[in-house]
Amino acid sequence: MQVLRRLARAAVRYGVKPEDIGPLSTFADDDYMAQYLNNMQRWKTPSFYGCTAKHQVRARRAWDKVISKVG
User: Fold this and answer.
1) Contact, 70 vs 4, CB < 8 A?
2) How far apart (Å, rounded) are the C-alpha atoms in residues 54 and 71?
3) What confidence tier does 21 reach under pLDDT thresholds 50, 70, 90?
4) Residue 56: predicted pLDDT
5) CA within 13 Å, CB half, 7
6) What's the pLDDT at 71?
7) Which of residues 70 and 61 earns the better pLDDT score?
8) 17, 22, 54, 70 - which has most CB atoms within 10 Å?
9) What is the chain's Cα-based Rg?
10) What number of H helices and E strands is found in the chain?
11) d(CA 41, CA 23)
């Protein structure tokens, strides 16, 4: 659950929604999530990708739903 929360926090920063990463079953695999999180550390700043506050709010709502289902 800790890896999922870290991944969600990083994904919200970039405006990445859970469906961009994979299906709901993906979030039961801690190794996959950790590798994805490590990959995200190499990304440039969110503004480089055009991420705005609007994208972050949408992503946060989507991640909250995933965390409530998995947790």
Assistant:
1) yes
2) 26
3) very high
4) 97
5) 27
6) 73
7) 61
8) 17
9) 11
10) 4, 0
11) 22
